[in-house]
Structure formats: structure tokens, C-alpha cells
Amino acid sequence: MAQPSGESLLNAEFDALVEEQLELWKVPGLTIAIVQGSKTYSKAYGFAELPDKKMTTDALFSTCSTTKAFTAAATSMAIQDSKATASPFDWDTPMSTLISDDFVLPDDYYTKNVTIEDLLSHRSGMAPNMWVLACTEKDLTLRETVRSLRNLPLSEPLRTKYQYNNHGYIAVTYALEKLTGEPLAKMLKRRIWEPLGMKETYFSIQEAKANPDSAQKFVQGYGWHQTDECGSYNPEPVMSWDASTGAGSMVSNVLDYSHWIREQIHKTGPLKGHDSLTRPRILHFESGDIPPGPWHAYALGWFCDHYRDQPLYTHPGGWPGFGSLMGFLPNKDFGFAVMGNATSANIVAERLIVHLFDKILDLPNDPRYNKELAACFAKQREEWDRMVTPPSLDDMRAELYPSLPDPPLPLSLPMEKYAGTYTHKASCSVSLTVWEGRLTADSSGPNPLCLELIHVSGEFFIGKLWNKRGIYFKKFPVEFSVDSTGTAHKVGMLLEPALGEEKIWFERKK
Fold first, then answer.
1. Which residues contact 307 (CB under 8 A, 6 or more apart)?
2. DSSP for 186-211?
3. What's the sign of the alpha-carbon dihedral 317, 161, 154, 396?
4. Where are the chain's structural domains?
5. Whether the predicted pLDDT of 5 surpasses 80
6. 466 with 450: CB under 8 angstroms?
7. Among residues of the chain, what percentage have pLDDT more than 90?
């Protein structure tokens, strides 16, 4: 049977699926572009800004971590260029030989051996360290951010486990700019965006908003605040993290991304000769990933999978208010880019793309695979419901502290003695104040969150994070350390899942 054309794929059946998924996952609007051979098809759905600004196919989004594939491509080009110089480098070049004064990790072995390839494939041994986004100084320079790595934890032996880590891409960005003498933004524009005709792609939200025309096209991002009766969309503030750069700073639209996806499939333009970017570097085994399978892999800025035996390359992007997904089936000359103005848009994108894959591949029904796929979707829904419906205090207490004394032990100090500013050596800080008998803090990091500490027994608390629009984020154990002078001199929080029961400790600012 002949494959359906892209035009017929974005039909009334697809439109109905989009509308259903937007409502189910609380996404105000979404755009999609698909490439099939020499043709490109695109559509827009819903709203760019509530209550009534319609979404358009040229609407601009923060494309978040889809930036990583561009950074990896720029690195490949810089490596190729270096072959003609007196100081060539390659994927297996240790980072410390390129930026020796700045790239230092907590263990000398890692410092000396972590390579460019390790950082771009998330196998460096560094913990994900996503907690940093809530409390780091958001105006840190690239260099300052790289230098903070010496104070961020490692969690696995080198090259043994996939652990998604934005700081690796930040470090590579800094090294590229030092080695080439050119900002990554200029290199991408000169070597990739302009040759591909990506005329509405920018390296930061600030750059996109500086142009009146593009500022009008930049969508408003939203988060969903669930209440007992219904819920509401809350506007998300614009991201501000100067150092994100090559890890996730780009702004673009699905029309521009369609050029990028076609180049990934054919590699006849700026990517000619750069085939190694999609070669798998590390396996990972998350059971809920889509498409389902016993294993998944990561290359350089790309996830490597199979959908019903067809090679598939994808990468999502997410930040409060934005979600995106790009990818391609190289053997079918088919690719896609989906962008939406809520974090859950990348979940919607997965459902839409699975629908399109099934139409394109025209494969017989496979009940076993459908069951596995349904299980992945159900797990996503369970996680989503948990995020938008905060647990009760009793449930949190039972989960985090199942063996509390009865009655609980009192604090050793008055509550106000625990207030104050606590700092971490990685340029992070938390300022605690007392409010209605609880310790609270409003973070000022790139992803600003509200922290509430609820006393449970002795020096132990429940930590609860939510964003400033009231959307629940996570819960974790917290412990204060009181010294012999009666001073709460440090606070430990179980912020990094990769460290098991090891807490991240902040010391009282003197």
C-alpha cells in the first residue's frame, strides 16, 4: 500500500486527536511540521496566548533541550576544522586539556579523563543536578558555571551509566567559544541556520524579543493549576538563565525546524560528513520511555530508538511553559517538529507522532506492542496526576518518615533560629524565613520555586517545592545540623535522586 502523503496525514482525524490531547494534557496551543521527501506540511492548533490569540505555524517557542543537537553539530564542525590547525582535538579529547583552569570535577580521575564525547552523551558520571536550577545565581557567566562543577556531585563511575546533565553541554559550549574565538550563537547562525534558511531562529529569548516582529510571534507559556473542582492556566514567567546557551537556549518555530530535520535525514548541506552525531554512545533502560523497548540509547544530542523495527531519532525539550519534540525516521524519509506552550506539550507530541508513525508504516496490528505502548502512556498519566495533585501532609509524612517517634520530638531551638541564608559552594543559596509556623523560601534561580519546610520530629522536616503559580513540584526529607553553640549551622536536603540517601548540604552564611 502506498504511504499517505503528509497533507493527508494532517487530516480531520488528526485534528480531532490534537484537540483531544490538548484538553487532556492542558496545553493551550501547539504547532506541528512534518517533512516527507521534498514536501513540508504544517498546522497550528489552539492559542498562542489566552484568551483569544490564535496559534500560527510561524509562532516562536523556547525550544529548550532540542538545542543540544545543534551544539553537538557545531562541535563536530569545530573538530573537523581543528584538523588543519597546530592543535587538533577530537571527540575523545579530555576536556581538562582544552580548558584546564576551568574544567575541574570533584575527583581528579574524572577531571583528567572526561572527554567531549562523555559530556555530550551524558555518561560523564556527573549527577543530573537539576536542583541547581532552583537556587543558582541566574546571571552566572559561562565560565563561572563551568567552574562551579568542582562543587557539584558525581554519582556514577565514568562511562557506566546514562545520566542526563545540562552542565556537560554548558561546559562544551564554553570550550568551543574559547577554542574558536567565536560565540556559539554566531557559529550556529553562520554554519547552520543561514545555510538551511532558518531565518526565524535565535539563541535566546532576549534576542528574539529584541526584534518587534519576532517579539509578536513569541508565545506565552502556561502551567496548569489543578483545584478540587476544576483548574486554571497560569502564565509562566520568561526563563532567564544566561549560562543555558548550548544546553537549551534556542528560540525557533516548526517551519525553521523542518529545514533542520530534513538536513538530518539527507545530510547534503552543512551536516555533510558529520554522520557520527547519531551513532549511539550509551544505553539506558528507563521502562516508561516511548517508544517502549528493553533498551534505549543516546548519541550526541539525539536519542536513538526503534519504532516497530524502524530506526528513530528524537529529542524532546521542556521548561516551565514550553514543550517540544523533534525527530525523524531516516529510512522512511519522514521527520517532524512539534512545539507547544506548556511543559506537557512534549507528552502530547509523543501521542501525535505515534499516530503518524502508524499511518506512515502501515504495519499490521500488534497487540503486544500496543499493550506496552498503553502502559507507557498510563505511567505518564500517573506521573502527571501526581504532579498536579499534591499529596496530603499525612501521606508525605508516611512516605518520607515511616518510623517517626510517637509523640514526635520537639525542635531543639525556636523556629526562628533556623531561619537565615544558607549557601552551597556551587553558587547556590536558600534564604529561609518563618511564615505561619513553617520555614519558607522563594528561590530566585532560573527556575524559581517556592520551598516550604514542615517540621516532623527533632531536626527533621518535610521539604515541599512548588512553583510560584501554585503547581506542585516534589517532596523530600530535610535535616538541620545544630552545633554545640546552639546554632543551626547547616541544612541538608535530599534533592538529588542519583545520590540515593546522600543529602545536598547548605551552610549558614556568616
1. 291, 329, 354, 357, 361
2. HHHIIIIIHHHT-TT-BSSHHHHHHS
3. positive
4. 72-180, 393-508
5. no
6. yes
7. 79
Residue with cell 579529547: 93
CA angle 444, 447, 451 (to 5 degrees): 65
CA distance 251 to 236: 16
C-alpha radius of gyration, the chain, whole number: 24
Residue owning grid cell 484537540:
19
Query: So what's the architecture of 72-180 in CATH?
Result: 3-Layer(aba) Sandwich (3.40)
Q: May I ask the CATH class of domain 393-508?
A: mainly beta
The dihedral of CA 385, 388, 393, 398: what is its sign?
positive
DSSP one-letter string for 426-475? TTEEEEEEEETTEEEEE--SSS-EEEEEEEEETTEEEEEEEETTS-EEEE
Q: For 331-360, what is each residue's pLDDT tens digit?
A: 999 999 999 999 999 999 999 999 999 999
Predicted pLDDT of residue 362: 86
β-bridge mates for residue 258, sequence order: none
**Closest to 96 in 3D by CA, of 111, 118, 107, 109:** 111
> How many CA within 13 A on the CB side of residue 235?
9
Instruction: Tell me 52's DSSP state.
Output: T
Q: How far is CA 236 from the centre of its chain?
A: 16
Between the two ends of the chain, the Cα-to-Cα distance in Å is 73
Contacts of 7 (CB under 8 A, 6+ apart): 39, 41
Cα separation, 15 vs 118, in Å, equals 41
d(CA 122, CA 333) in angstroms, rounded, equals 28
Find all residues with CB under 8 Å of 304, minimum gap 6, and list them: 278, 280, 296, 297, 298, 311, 312, 313
d(CA 351, CA 14): 11
Would you say the C-alpha torsion 314, 315, 320, 321 has a positive or negative sign? negative
Q: What does the pLDDT read at residue 339? A: 99
For residue 262, the surrounding DSSP H or E stretch is: helix 254-266
What is the predicted pLDDT for the residue at 491? 98
Determine if the pTM surpasses 0.70: yes
Short-list 194, 148, 188, CA closest to 66:
188
Name residue 475's beta-bridge partners. Answer: 464
Label residue 471 by pLDDT band (50, 70, 90). Answer: low
